[in-house]
Structure formats: C-alpha cells, structure tokens
Amino acid sequence: LKNLNEMLCPIIASEVKALNANLSTLEVLTKIDNYTLLDYSLISSPEITENYLVLNLKGVFYPLENLADPPFSPVPFVLPERSNSMLYIGIAEYFFKSASFAYFTAGAFNVTLSTKEISNHFVQNSQGLGNVLSRIAEIYILSQPFMVRIMATEPPVINLQPGNFTLDIPASIMMLTQPKNSTVETIVSMDFVASTSVGLVILGQRLVCSLSLNRFRLALPESNRSNI
C-alpha cells in the first residue's frame, strides 16, 4: 500500500497541477444582451485546502464589438475570515464599473422617443419634467414630428459602500423637431446629473433594495435656448 501511495501521489499531484494551469487560462465569455459580453474566466489557479475552495474570477464586462479592457484597473480585495456559511461571494467595484463603461461605450444609455411614445408615457405621468415634455409635445404633435433624445454624457459612476452604493448619472436631454422637407432642429437642450443611493438589506432569504434621490441638478445652457 505504501508503494502504491508513493506511485500514485506524484501522478495525481502532477495532474492536478496541469488541470489548475488549464483552468487558469480558460477564457469564458457569455453574451449578456445585444450590448455586452461578460468574461468570468479564472485569473489564477483554484486554491484548495482542507477547509475551503477559493475561485478567483475575472468578472469584467465588454462592449459586444470591442474586447479591450476598461481604462481603469481592479483593486484587490479579500473576503472576511468567516466559516459559519457554506458559500461566500465577493464582488468588486470594478465589476459594476466595467458594466457601466461597457454599456456606455455600446450606446445602451442613448434613447430617442418619438411623438407617439412621448404622448403615451409623459402625458399620462405629467409631473415635473414630464409636464414640460408633454406641453412641448402638445405644441408640435399636430404640426410636425417631435422627438426627445436622452444621452448619457459619461459612464454612470458607481461607488460601493457598507450596506449600500451610490449611482451618479450624468446625461443630457435634447428636444428635437423635423419640419417637413427640412433637417432636424434642436428646440431646447438640457444637461442633468442625478445622484442616487441604493440601500441593501437582507431579510430572511430576500434582498430588499431601497432607492433614494440625493441630488438632481438640471442646467439649461443659454446658447442652446430658442423660442418655442
């Protein structure tokens, strides 16, 4: 039996080492939607001990047509030293930031609403900004096509904090019209930044989220104003 162990152990150790090397170089890409891919390949060999198994995954989003890494680097982190649960999962801030950058680069945050879509949505919810849009739509709806274009000017900024995270969204809104036999004209353009906080609480087996608006800044550049 001793001789058998002496023969098998080096073979098994060699095979495990080779398997770890292959796993660490395995690229795993999954298409999330029409905008992004998720790379969750291993970045190092699995760490196996008597008490636990550790897998370090990459976890980065890419635009569908561009697999270049984001222009920022992940910050290393470690899980807390606990052993009273079967599974621990840690997600770095880099994961969310790469998603924000990938969707921004792919143009997922750019939306154009037609007159019909504005009428169906904003007129039914005509409060605040929706009221402004619905009034402008009423002026143009019978005379000429009217559109609202919403575009993120930068990738939304995500910051993780104990128990919650903040999300800052910089964007612009353009109200456009296209008279018959003419080019698209800008009626008015506004820039805004919305800062929100999302609280996370675990109740039993449920993850409960609460959303609050911290700050909303709306700017109307003088150079972009015109008579309506």
TrEMBL record:
Keywords: Antibiotic, Antimicrobial, Disulfide bond, Glycoprotein, Immunity, Innate immunity, Secreted, Signal. It comes from the Eukaryota. It is found in: Secreted. Residues 81-228 form the Lipid-binding serum glycoprotein C-terminal domain. It holds the Pfam family LBP_BPI_CETP_C. GO terms for molecular function: lipid binding. One of its GO terms (biological process) is defense response to Gram-negative bacterium. InterPro entries: Bactericidal_perm-incr_a/b_dom, BPI/LBP/Plunc, Lipid-bd_serum_glycop_C. One of its GO terms (cellular component) is extracellular space. PANTHER family: BACTERICIDAL PERMEABILITY-INCREASING BPI PROTEIN-RELATED, BPI FOLD-CONTAINING FAMILY C PROTEIN. The N- and C-terminal barrels adopt an identical fold despite having only 13% of conserved residues. Monomer. Homodimer; disulfide-linked. The cytotoxic action of BPI is limited to many species of Gram-negative bacteria; this specificity may be explained by a strong affinity of the very basic N-terminal half for the negatively charged lipopolysaccharides that are unique to the Gram-negative bacterial outer envelope. This is Bactericidal permeability-increasing protein. It comes from Macaca mulatta (Rhesus macaque). The gene is BPIL2.
